[in-house]
Known about the structure:
The complex is a heterodimer of chains A (153) and B (187).
Chain A: H1 7-11, H2 18-44, E1 48-60, E2 72-75, E3 81-94, E4 100-118, E5 121-124, E6 127-129, E7 134-138, E8 143-152
Antiparallel strand pairs in A: 1-4, 1-8, 2-3, 2-7, 3-4, 4-5, 5-6, 7-8
Chain B: H1 2-5, H2 9-26, H3 29-51, E1 65-76, H4 78-82, E2 89-92, E3 98-102, E4 107-110, E5 112-116, E6 122-126, E7 134-147, E8 150-153, E9 157-159, E10 164-169, E11 175-185
Antiparallel strand pairs in B: 1-7, 1-11, 2-3, 2-10, 3-7, 4-7, 5-6, 7-8, 8-9, 10-11
Amino acid sequence: xxxxxxxGASSKSIRITIVDVIIIITAAVFIAMLIHYxxxxxxxxDGYIIQxxxxxxxxxxxxxxxxxxxxxxYNMEDSLPMGxxxxxxxxxxxxxxxxxxxxxMDLYVTIEANxxxxxxxxxxxxxxxxxxxxxxxxxxxxxxxxxxxxxxx
Amino acid sequence: xxxxxxxxxxxxxxxANENKASIKKGFGVLDAFxxxxxIVCLISVVARYVLTDEKGILHNEPEFSDVxxxxxxxxxxxxxxxxFTEDMVFYLDGSADVVGKLDANFTVTPAQYYTENENxxxxxxxxxxxxGNVDIRATLITEGYFSDGTYYLNGKTLLTSGMTITIxxxxxxxxxxxxxxxxxxxx
Lengths: 153, 187
């Protein structure tokens, strides 16, 4: 048998070829992707439902009926989903003295969305939702920017 | 030197067998799997670029349609309105992207503003018809497509009613803000 060998262990020494390296890399990438997507899905399990209300001030009357309950809402900047409109109301806009502004309406859009913890608050599609926060949103047919006036879980 | 190791015929055969064994060990089903995987990856990469290019069978960009975009340009000088002519082409400010051609049916009216009446209430009033500021309601005939109800101007710029866009004429001598009122397919 082998005289040069240093015992049985060396006679069975593993030869790593380029193919083995490719297999290892492929397997590592596959496992990494599996872990990544598994975690991504698991994280959604941490989510919860929130409702937030956006006040859109000073919308021209002719545009004030463009939002309807059931509309999907997206972030204007990145088009990520921000929830679904569950309630909608409007009232005449007023100025700082409380006087009605003719032809202008304030819209109140209630949106329900899956949120995830973000610091001490909540975020929808990575966008933090908090009262007094400014949001630029859209449905498929209407853009609206407004202040979040209420958030509830 | 080497000859010494092949000296005895009896010792040559086990060595050859050992080599064969090591070759067999070196290429297994996993190696074949890896090679197949690499080939599939390469084919996928090629397919990604060949089949999805403009002539490729997977190319599925929708065809553009003529789409009427109604706009309101508020409170501009009447001289600005004087420059408006049918088929005038407007561009998105800051780019060479065409927004669309001005449709013939545009209206110019005295611009609205708010004032107080004798009771201290806000009421709508209008600038003078002679030399006062004006509101322009116009329709631009644009090209683009709808995806899930959302309009993409020239296939790339998202446009919805309620948005304000800044547009310029072809000479870049006029720049106005326009509120998008409505978007509809041209029938």
